[in-house]
Design a protein that fits this description.
The structure is a single chain. The protein is of the alpha+beta class and 313 residues long. 35% of the residues lie in helices and 24% in strands. The strands form two sheets. A six-stranded antiparallel barrel has the order 1-2-5-4-3-12. The chain starts with a helix and ends with a helix. Keywords: Cell shape. It comes from Streptomyces virens. This is Cell shape-determining protein MreC. Belongs to the MreC family.
């Protein structure tokens, strides 16, 4: 429509009529004179509106579903994060309990031997400084660690310090083929030298080839001059095999170490040696094998019947 004076007057007139009808409809309520026209319009346009609503509602429902799905995804992600954090917390608690147990054993062994120790944690294992059987601990020169100090844990001898940095140190394990420590048999004075053999039992050469040794005997460190690199009395291991004496100057033993070298975590570096040799006091208490009960069955002969007795007579 062209914008003319007549068209503008018609537009104003239509707007006025519309306001008048709205005013009459509102004031009339249910008795509104335009109620019939409104119902007729609803009859005509209702199906169309429903159709449009039916076409639009799935889209709205889909948007709502996506929105709610996003909310559910966020809640699920939050629950997954909480679950992972809980598992990590439980895992850390288990690890914390394990470390507390190791620390408790370490304190007990240091107390029995009167060793002054510096606790440390294993932070690396493997080849280091040219050695093949080593660990790295998180204690170094700043903690008073020096080269050629004894390293132990709650079970026994771990190794000796070989390289020291400001905050870390390298420990040569007792299983390394280049490792050698002087040993002494429990409850005796038989001396020897234990050497590492990797993942095999430690090999011990006793100085006395005629020494009476049997499986199950135990060994401790003999100690070094000025207690470096080894302090005395640290448990080393248990005899697992004794080679027959063949007239050699020494006798060969094989011992299973007390320490499980594949599970090292908390260790202690002996920074102060004991005032006197603890001898065998640091060894764990022996567990006596329980005797196997013997069952004795006694057979008591039954008395013969009267008839049988008379027949024999």
């Amino acid at each position: 429509m062209r914008d003319t004076r007549e068209s503008r007057l018609l537009l104003v007139l239509l707007i006025a009529i519309a306001f008048a009808l709205i005013t009459v409809d509102i004031r009339g309520g249910e008795d509104s004179p335009v109620d019939g026209a409104r119902q007729a319009a609803a009859t005509v346009f209702g199906p169309i509106e429903n159709g449009v609503s039916g076409a639009v509602d799935p889209i709205g429902n889909a948007v709502t579903a996506v929105r709610e799905s996003g909310d559910r995804h966020d809640r699920l992600a939050a629950l997954e994060r909480e679950n992972a954090a809980l598992k990590a917390e439980l895992g850390s608690e288990d690890r914390g309990r394990s470390r507390l147990e190791q620390l408790d054993k370490l304190l007990k062994i240091s107390g029995r031997g009167q060793y002054g120790i510096k606790g440390a944690q294993v932070i690396a294992i493997g080849a280091a400084q040219g050695f093949s059987w080593t660990i790295t601990i998180d204690a170094g020169a700043n903690d008073g660690i020096k080269r050629d100090m004894t390293v132990l844990n709650g079970d026994g001898l771990v190794g000796r310090v070989t390289t020291v940095g400001p905050n870390t140190a390298t420990v040569l394990l007792a299983t390394d083929p280049d490792f050698t420590v002087g040993t002494r048999m429990e409850s005796g004075d038989e001396l020897g030298f234990a050497s590492g053999q990797g993942d095999r039992p430690l090999r011990v050469e006793l100085l006395n080839s005629k020494a009476e040794i049997k499986k199950g005997d135990r060994l401790v460190t003999f100690g070094s001059q000025a207690d470096r690199p080894f302090v005395p009395g640290v448990p080393v291991g248990v005899v697992s095999r004794v080679d027959p004496s063949g007239g050699d100057l020494t006798r060969t033993l094989y011992i299973t170490p007390y320490v499980s070298f594949s599970k090292l975590d908390v260790v202690g570096v002996v920074v102060q040696a004991p005032e006197k040799d603890p001898r065998d006091t640091v060894l764990p208490e022996k567990t006596e094998p329980k005797p196997t009960p013997t069952v004795t069955v006694t057979v008591t002969p039954s008395a013969p019947a009267d008839g049988q007795y008379q027949q024999e007579q």
